Each structure stands twice: as C-alpha cells, then as structure tokens.
Amino acid sequence: MNKFICEMHAHTSNTSRCASVTAEDLINDYIRAGYDGIVITDHLSPSTFERFEGKAISWKEKIDFFLRGYNAALKAANGKIKVFLGMEIRFYFPENANMNDYLVYGVNEKFLYGNVDIDRMRIPQFSELVHKNGMAIFQAHPFRTGMTVTKPQYLDGIEVYNGCPRHNSHNTIANIWADENSLLKTSGSDYHKHEDTARGGLIFDREIKDNKDLVNALLNTSPKIIRR
After folding, report:
1. Residue 25's domain is classified under what CATH number?
2. Among 27, 80, 110, 207, which one has the highest count of C-beta atoms within 10 angstroms of its own C-beta?
3. What is the C-alpha to C-alpha distance for residues 102 and 72, in angstroms, rounded to an integer?
4. Stretch 177-191: mean pLDDT, rounded?
5. Which of 143, 178, 141, 174 minimizes the C-alpha distance to 157?
6. Could you give the CA distance from residue 80 to residue 105 in angstroms, rounded to a whole number?
7. Considering only CA atoms, which of 26, 116, 123, 137 is closest in space to residue 63?
8. Average pLDDT over residues 124-138
C-alpha cells in the first residue's frame, strides 16, 4: 500500500511575519524529512498586512503578497515534493472578538482574488462560503490560550495535534473534543522555524494529486495522525 506523508500546517517568512524560514529552505527541510507533500498555510490575517499600515493597498495587492510564500515554495519544490495552497485565516474584528485561527484546505487563487475582504467575515458566513466552493475548514489549535472553541456546525474538523514546541495547544483535550463532537481530525507541525520540521502531519493511504483530491481525502478517508 502506498503512503503519502503530508504536512498540513506550515508558514513561510516570505508572507507570514511570525515565520523565520524562507519557502525555499522550508521545502528543503521537508524533502530531507521524507515528506511527499506540504500545504502552505501562510497567515491571511491583520498581522500579515500590518507592514502596509498607512498605505492604500488593494485586495489584489494583499493577495499578491499573501501568495508570495506559496509561489516561492512551488518554484523551489520543482516537482520533488507536492505543494498545496492553503491558508490560516484570522478574522479582523475592530472589537477584538477573539484570536481564533482557521486552516482552510482546497484554496485556489481564483477564490482568493474573487472574494474581497474575507478576513472581515464572521465564521458562519465564511463557513458557508468555504463549503459552497468545495473547500474544507478546520479550527487550528482550538484549545490554545486566547482561542475560543468554535461551534462544531461551522467546521469540518479541528487540529487535534499541533506540533509547535513554543505553545501548549492542549492537544489531548482537542482530541477528546473532536471525538465528542464527531469532528474530523488533522495534525500539523505549525512550522515557523527549522526546529519545527516534521513534528506533525497526516499519512494518507494513497497519493494526493491536487487540492480537490486533498479535500476529498480529508473528508472521506481516515488518514493517520502524526504526533512527534
């Protein structure tokens, strides 16, 4: 039986302010680790665009910048490892309602350019849009300090294992919550630094060909959770 090892949560310094590794070096880390695929889930959030504060910047320019990490990773991979476009979105609330992050899989550029200001939506509205467009949404590290657990009806699943060594994501509690609420499970390294390489991910029992195939496998198979 073929296996496909895929990183589901990774950030590049090309886009995400909190990351310290370029897309090129990230790709090399995962090739050396023996992974078959990686989802680039750079932050689509207010912090990503703080560097443009005071400047008039269009939504197209924001998405151009957001895609820098993914495009650089795709170029660096050069067919040696599969690269999928995803995102970790945090919504902009003037009243600072919460700090929740959501991992979205199956994202494509047409969706990003065509849906202006999605980072200002509320989760019910965004969840409906995601599913209308054939994508999947998982809440990232829902039990980390500062997060608020989202109502299950708006999610396909949650991240039950987050491998970042600099945060306590209370992974055990997340796993129990997923079981109790019949939510699908994902795992990710939450890669920001070299030390984060291959700390999480999913093992599928077949090759994942593209983003549509990735969503189908997430929703309809039972991939193995990597916990390291």
Report:
1. 3.20.20.140
2. 27
3. 23
4. 98
5. 178
6. 21
7. 116
8. 97
Query: How far apart are alpha carbons 214 and 207 in whole angstroms?
Result: 9
- Interatomic CA distance for residues 89 and 33, integer angstroms: 27
Residues in CB range of 77: below 8 A, 6 or more apart: 27, 83
Average pLDDT on 187-202 reads 98
**Residue type at 20 in one-letter notation:** S
Strands 82-89 and 102-105: antiparallel
157 close to 188: Cβ distance less than 8 angstroms: no
Q: CA 172 to CA 10: how far, in whole Å? A: 21
Structure tokens at 32: 């050396």
Whether the Cβ atoms of residue 195 and residue 168 lie closer than 8 Å to each other: no
Are 90 and 45 in contact, with CB atoms under 8 Å apart? yes
CA dihedral of residues 43, 199, 165, 17 (deg, nearest 10): -20
Cα(57)–Cα(67) distance, integer angstroms: 15
Full domain range(s) for residue 57: 4-227
Tell me the C-alpha distance between 98 and 19, whole Å. 22
Confidence check: pLDDT of 96 > 60: no
Contacts of 121 (CB under 8 A, 6+ apart): 91, 129
Count CB neighbours of 36 within 10 A.
19
> Exposed e or buried b for every residue in 45-62, given b needs 16+ CB within 10 A?
beebbeeeeeeeeeeeeb
Is the model's pLDDT at 161 over the cut of 90?
yes
